[in-house]
Write a structure and sequence with these properties.
By secondary structure, this protein is mainly beta. It contains three helices and 32 strands. Strand 24 (404-419) and strand 25 (422-432) form a beta hairpin.
């Protein structure tokens, strides 16, 4: 708590725009999420003696040739769901980057992604407790127009330590359109890319049975090839990746190779958008520590090919990409804007979007949804969004047990302009299912008093088996670069997901405080 007060005091001293002295700029950010927990017999939430907080302070110095950065993380008493791995505090992120001519060299911790991330993606997602940065060095070269080359090597972060294995890789991208004038004149862009990643991990004594050891490879190699083409309203992407033998806990110590392939095509023109993409992956779990479980130590990432839902009940059963086994994933989406003053568009116009996602493997459906969204301005001051979603969620595949859940979800979201700086938004959602815990209802009211204040109340009620209300009340204020939110309520135990990666978060009840500041 004392450290948090020190950080807030530091922020007050830095409550000015990023400063530049002699060509050097200082910038940074603070994020602090706090919970004062209470006991709750209905949800199983438990009170603790300490104030719980996840607090981050980022600082960065920038100059013409050299940049440097550092991050302090304080999770000595972390929020629920983080206590088993991120408990502690320290400075896990620090780096120096130098730029000279066509070369850029980074030493310290860094994030990187090759292509779509099939063989390498290191990134941070604080809400999921993911930070798989590399500690080492990275060199980026742009020796000539249209050519970008990268080489890197380092050890991967594993919460408050770094795994012993060494991850190395190289990537090259050729932007052919920068060499061909006819492509530039025709607004056409063509990129060819290729990547290679190697993991070196010493053997461990892992027994196949009481008398025999697995012969585990010390070197695992992966490669990726891709092509993207953009011409006018059209955009195409094709990518293929392969990984050598990589037996691990994830794949049951299988010696099969891993593969991943995807195709994505889209069309976007004024008033119309189309998307079609497909992906096949098998045995593509790629970790810097073969005996690791959970969301840590992943070197790579495979997108889920399902829509990220923002509405509470539409996101109640989120899909997590099955890296260790395999999956076929398809997604199609179409959107159309009906013009104003037409039969379907009405006085103000209307937008319609349809999305379909389907994921399966070896005859078993893992996930499927079909959702239709309509957005229409009904008057000068009132706008309405409605959505219908049909969902199939294989809880056994994603969470380990629970069977197939079939759900129909109905959502209405209305926004009313009460005054030039005052808006009132309301949501009403209903999820109908005969499976799992039964039906759910969700309601929300949000009053926005621009530019500083927002008041929000909501309730998610299980009107099926448990009859529990998950209520929330929030007050948010924004002043310049400062954002402060205070609230009270319950949260449901479940999975928090983003981009096909999920983390289990236990139920909570109590007072919350969130502070964000950028300078």
């Amino acid at each position: 708590m004392r450290l948090w007060l020190v950080i807030i005091g530091l922020c007050c001293g830095l409550s000015i725009p990023a400063q530049e002295q002699n060509g050097v700029t200082l910038s940074g950010s603070v994020q602090s999420d706090i919970l004062l927990p209470q006991n709750d017999d209905k949800t199983g939430a438990q009170k603790t003696e300490d104030l719980l907080t996840n607090t981050y302070l980022d600082l960065m110095l920038q100059s013409r040739y050299v940049d440097a950065g550092v991050r302090l993380e304080y999770l000595e008493h972390p929020l629920p769901g983080f206590e088993n791995d991120f408990k502690g505090w320290g400075v896990p992120h620090f780096w120096v980057k130098g730029q000279l001519g066509c070369a850029e060299l980074t030493a310290g911790t860094f994030y990187e992604q090759f292509g779509s991330g099939f063989i390498l993606r290191t990134y941070e997602e604080r809400s999921l407790g993911i930070d798989n940065s590399l500690l080492g060095g990275r060199l980026v070269l742009k020796p000539m127009k249209g050519v970008t080359m990268k080489a890197l090597s380092g050890k991967q972060r594993n919460y408050w330590s770094w795994n012993k294995s060494l991850v190395s890789g190289a990537d090259v991208e050729l932007h052919l359109d920068e060499w061909i004038s006819s492509m530039q004149e025709g607004d056409t862009k063509l990129m060819l890319g290729g990547s290679w990643v190697n993991k070196y991990e010493k053997k461990e004594d892992v027994y196949a049975d009481p008398t025999h050891l697995y012969n585990l490879p010390e070197f695992v190699n992966a490669w990726d090839a891709r092509v993207t083409l953009n011409s006018g309203p059209w955009s195409l992407l094709a990518e293929y990746a392969q990984k050598t033998q990589d037996p691990s806990y994830d794949n049951g110590f299988s010696y099969d190779k891993g593969t991943a392939a995807m195709f994505s095509g889209s069309y976007s023109k004024k008033g119309l958008s189309l998307l079609l993409q497909g992906k096949r992956s098998e045995n593509m779990s790629f970790r810097s520590k073969r005996m690791q479980l959970g969301t840590s130590s992943f070197i790579n990432h495979l997108p889920a090919f399902t829509q990220d839902q923002t509405y509470a009940l539409a996101a109640l059963y989120p899909y997590a990409t099955q890296l260790a086994d395999g999956e076929w994933a398809w997604q199609a989406e179409a959107g159309y804007n009906f013009k104003r003053k037409t039969a379907l568009g009405g006085k103000y116009g209307m937008n319609v979007k349809v999305n379909f996602s389907h994921v399966r493997w070896e005859g078993t459906t893992y996930y499927q949804d079909l959702d239709v969204q309509l957005s229409r301005k009904l008057s000068k001051d009132f706008k309405l969004n409605v959505m219908y979603m049909n969902q199939q969620y294989n809880k056994t595949v994603v969470e380990g047990e629970g069977g197939m859940i079939h759900a129909n979800i109905f959502i209405a979201d209305g926004l009313y302009q009460l005054a030039p700086k005052t808006k009132l938004r309301g949501e009403l959602q209903y999820l109908a299912t005969k499976d799992d815990q039964g039906d759910w209802t969700f309601g929300l009211l949000e009053l926005s008093l621009a530019p500083h204040w927002m008041l929000t109340v909501s309730d998610m009620w299980n009107n099926g088996d448990t009859k529990i209300h998950y209520y929330q009340g929030l007050v948010t204020c924004n002043f310049g670069a400062h954002r402060l939110q205070a609230g009270y309520g319950r949260t449901r135990a479940g999975y928090n997901c983003s981009g096909g990666v999920c983390r289990y978060v236990p139920a909570t009840k109590g007072f919350t405080l969130s502070y964000n500041y950028n300078f």
